[in-house]
Design a protein that fits this description.
The chain starts with 11 loop residues before the first helix and ends with a helix. The chain is α/β, with parallel strands linked by helices. It has eleven helices and eleven strands. Helix content is about 40%, strand content about 15%. The strands form two sheets. A six-stranded mixed beta sheet has the order 8-7-9-6-5-10, with helices on both faces. The protein has a five-stranded parallel beta sheet with strand order 3-2-1-4-11, with helices on both faces.
C-alpha cells in the first residue's frame, strides 16, 4: 500500500519514484526485451524495487544480449517464446490468469503490443477506451501536468474523448489529486461551429455537469495560453476554475498532443513519464529514446495504480 502525498514544486517524477519504493514491487510482464534499452530499463526498475520483471521473448536472444551487455539475469524469470507477437499474446495470457499486474513494452512496436491487448477474445480490454497519459515535470509549472492522448487515439470523437478524460481524472486521483482540473484545448476559447474541437469541449463540460464524467473540474474550450496561465485568462476576460491551475490538458487529437509533449521535452527541459490506461492492468509504454528517469517514473506510475486498486479491494 502506498502513502500518497502532494509532490514538491519540482522533481515531481523523482517524488513518485520515491513513493513507489515504499510498497512491494509489482509483478510486470516485460514484452520482448531484446534490445539494450528494454532489458536494461526493466532490470534497473527491478533494482530500484519498483517491479518484479517477468521477461517474455526468445530466451536465447535475451540471454545473449545480457551476456554482451554484462547484465545480470540471476533470479529473473524468463518465458521463452519465438517472437514478439507471441510475447505480446503470452503477456495478455498472464494478465488474464492473474499472474502479472502490469505490462511493459520492450523492443516491439506499440501497435503490435496494443493489437494483442485489444483482441476481442484473447486480449485484456475493458469497457473503457484505452488511452495514454504523459505526466510532465516542467520547470516553469508549479505542479505535475498530464497531457492526453499523445500515443493511442489518433482522431478521437466525443465518446472517445469522454473515456480519455475519465481515464485521466481517475489516474490523477490515484496520484493524490482529489479533484483534478481539466483544460479542454482548442485554438480559441469560444464556441466556433466550424471548429469541432470547440464543440466537443462544450459538450464534455456539459457531460460533466450531468454526471457523465465524474471526479474532475472541466473547462473548455481553452487555448493553451489561458489553460496554463491565469494572467492570460484574465487578459481575455475568462473566468475559470481551471486556468492557471490545470492538472490535465486534453488535446483535440493525437498529433496536437504529441507535438505539445515533445515541445515541452525539447524546448522547456521537461521530464516525462508515460502509461496507457483503460486495460485490465496499466501498460508501461516506453520509447527507445526515453532516459532512465522516464523509464523508472513510468514504472512508478504503474505501481501507484496497482497498489491503489489493492487498497480499494481491501474491506
Amino acid at each position: 500500500m502506498l502513502t500518497i502525498e502532494k509532490p514538491p514544486a519540482q522533481q515531481q517524477l523523482e517524488f513518485f519514484i520515491r513513493q513507489a519504493r515504499q510498497a512491494r514491487p509489482i509483478r510486470t510482464a516485460v514484452v520482448h526485451p531484446v534490445d539494450h534499452n528494454a532489458l536494461a530499463g526493466a532490470l534497473s526498475a527491478a533494482d530500484q524495487g519498483l517491479i518484479e520483471p517477468v521477461l517474455i521473448g526468445p530466451q536465447h536472444r535475451i540471454q545473449d544480449l545480457a551476456d554482451r551487455e554484462q547484465l545480470v539475469l540471476a533470479n529473473i524469470e524468463i518465458i521463452d517464446v519465438p517472437h514478439s507477437h507471441a510475447a505480446a499474446e503470452k503477456a495478455c495470457d498472464l494478465v488474464r490468469e492473474g499472474s502479472v499486474e502490469a505490462l511493459m513494452k520492450g523492443a516491439l512496436a506499440t501497435s503490435e503490443l496494443l493489437s494483442a491487448v485489444l483482441h476481442k477474445t484473447l486480449g485484456i480490454r475493458t469497457e473503457r477506451r484505452l488511452s495514454h497519459v504523459f505526466v510532465f515535470d516542467i520547470p516553469n509549472y508549479h505542479k505535475p501536468l498530464v497531457i492526453t492522448d499523445a500515443a493511442i487515439n489518433v482522431a478521437p470523437d466525443l465518446s472517445v474523448k469522454r473515456d480519455i478524460v475519465q481515464n485521466a481524472i481517475e489516474f490523477c486521483q490515484v496520484l493524490g489529486i482529489e479533484r483534478p482540473r481539466v483544460a479542454i484545448l482548442a485554438a480559441v476559447e469560444k464556441i466556433v461551429p466550424s471548429m469541432q474541437s470547440t464543440l466537443d469541449a462544450a459538450a464534455l463540460c456539459k457531460m460533466s455537469d450531468r454526471g457523465q464524467i465524474t471526479g474532475g473540474i472541466l473547462d473548455g474550450p481553452l487555448a493553451f495560453d489561458n489553460a496554463i496561465s491565469r494572467q492570460a485568462a484574465l487578459d481575455k476576460h475568462i473566468e475559470s476554475q481551471v486556468s492557471g491551475e490545470a492538472d490535465i490538458l486534453l488535446a483535440p487529437d493525437l498529433e496536437s498532443a504529441n507535438m505539445i509533449a515533445k515541445q515541452l521535452v525539447y524546448l522547456a527541459n521537461a521530464e516525462s513519464a508515460g502509461i496507457a490506461l483503460g486495460a485490465r492492468v496499466p501498460i508501461i509504454l516506453t520509447s527507445r529514446s526515453d532516459n532512465t528517469l522516464t523509464r523508472l517514473a513510468s514504472c512508478a506510475l504503474a505501481s501507484h495504480i496497482v497498489h491503489e486498486r489493492e487498497t480499494i479491494r481491501v474491506p
